Amino acid sequence: MRVYDLTHDSLSELAMYRAPLTALTISTLSPFILMGDLMKSVTLLRLDTSGRRVELATVARDYAPLWMTSVSMIEEGWLLGAEDSGNLVGWKREDNWAPDEGRLTMVHEMRFGEMINRIRLGITFFSTDMLICRFVE
After folding, report:
1. Residue 58: pLDDT above 80?
2. Which residue from 2, 60, 62, 124 puts its CA 20 to 30 A from 32's CA?
3. Tell me: the pLDDT tens digits for 16-47?
4. Of 10, 86, 99, 88, whose CA–CA distance to 58 is shortest?
5. Which residues are bridge partners to 110 per DSSP?
6. CA distance 11 to 19
7. At 81, which CATH number?
8. What whole-number distance in Å separates Cα of residue 58 and Cα of residue 61?
9. 3-state secondary structure the chain
10. For residues 68 and 62, is the Cβ–Cβ distance under 8 A?
11. What is the CA angle 119-16-101, rounded to 5?
12. What's the domain count of the chain?
């Protein structure tokens, strides 16, 4: 994964992170980047622009061997992913970690039954005669 600075006349690389295998899907919620890997589940990165150099630092990851097809950051600390076996998985980022502990806590797991190519955040509302839910595409 690479982060670039795009100006009107140039494109320059600012930071790079080497994925464990293949970064298949990403989701962002500033300053975090959630990366879904083909065989190594998810990794939560932070884009640090405070110093002289821009850096991508690993915040936490899930160590389960999940083959992610789509990921989404619901809100800060709540993450959602879909894997190739048709399961939806939810993680929570704990704020009271020890400095050397970088694990995401799996808090939800649901069998959806079909492979999900993309997760999009949307709106769910009820009316008297129908339910409209636009969350998973």
Report:
1. yes
2. 124
3. 988 777 888 999 998 899 999 888 899 999 99
4. 99
5. 88
6. 22
7. 2.130.10.10
8. 8
9. CEEEEECCCCEEEEEECCCCCCEEEEEEECCEEEEEECCCCEEEEEEECCCCCCEEEEEEECCCCCCEEEEEEEECCEEEEEECCCEEEEEECCCCCCCCCCECEEEEEEECCCCCCCECCCCEEECCCCEEECCEC
10. no
11. 70
12. 1
Which residue range forms the structural domain that includes residue 15?
2-133
Residue pointed to by tokens 């998973």: 136
CA separation, residue 74 to residues 4, 30, 65, 93, 105 (Å) = 24, 12, 22, 12, 15
Residues 38, 32, 4, 99: is their CA dihedral positive or negative?
Answer: negative
Separation CA 23–CA 40 (nearest Å): 9
Predicted TM-score of the model (pTM): 0.80
